[in-house]
Amino acid sequence: MIIKTLVENTAIAEDFGSEHGLSLYIETKTHKLLFDVGASGLFWQNAAKLNVDIAEVDFLIISHGHYDHGGGLREFLRENTKAKVFLHPLAFEKHYALCSDNELAWIGLEDDLKENGQIVLTSDQFLITEGIWVFSNTIRSEPLPVFNKGLLREENGQTTEDTFAHEQNLVIEEESKTLLVTGCAHNGIANILEQFHKLKGHMPDYVIGGFHLSSPSSDDHESFVRLDKLSQYLMDTKASYYTCHCTGRKPYERLRARMGESINYLSAGSTLTI
Fold this sequence. Notes:
Radius of gyration: 17 Å
Order of helices and strands: EEEHEHHEEEEEEEEEEHEHEHEE
Strand content: 25-35%
Structural class: alpha/beta
CATH architecture: 4-Layer Sandwich
Distance between the termini: 5 Å
């Protein structure tokens, strides 16, 4: 399995653009997938530099209804007219972020795209094809990320705290190995892993994605106490972790100091083979 990071907050070299967002190209033995498409058309530009043909992608999975993961959707649909695009039914709700001046900033997906014929709405457990599926409806027994605060959704004309019911996670099973991919882990990476374990009876072998441990607009991050507790939990799962995006560099460095080689960072332009 080959994973190429098309979009991330950082890049491995100046040749690759970066932005606040995430897009991963995943190639299995039988399929070519995209997981998220970043905030713009940058994913397409970086894909060309990594010899990825967006027109040949079989499936696109959008992790949740925020622009930094689905902002490039219109560009994708222009470049690829065959792939099915899998989103949670609530992904096209109106989503906002509360700014420091108490103004609301729209952070959702472009509403008119939901009428596109390539769009497929998923469910709590949804099989895309053999060995590739998504799940949502995560049971949240552990605390949620601190930086979910200020992320809102519109319901019946009123803005309320986002429940992140629109967030889904990708699972790929190939040759007795399992990869779990998260977008931002707004439901908490420990909760997502526990939900996976509940569904499958074991932990994944590999986990890739953002863990939402930092603020996108400041240097704030989860406390070292919570990060150290999380690092121990992640090590106990025995999985290999590759994180990025909303995890943040400082939280990553703290996790890395505790977890060593069991966690690594993915930047735009990187290629990972597992």
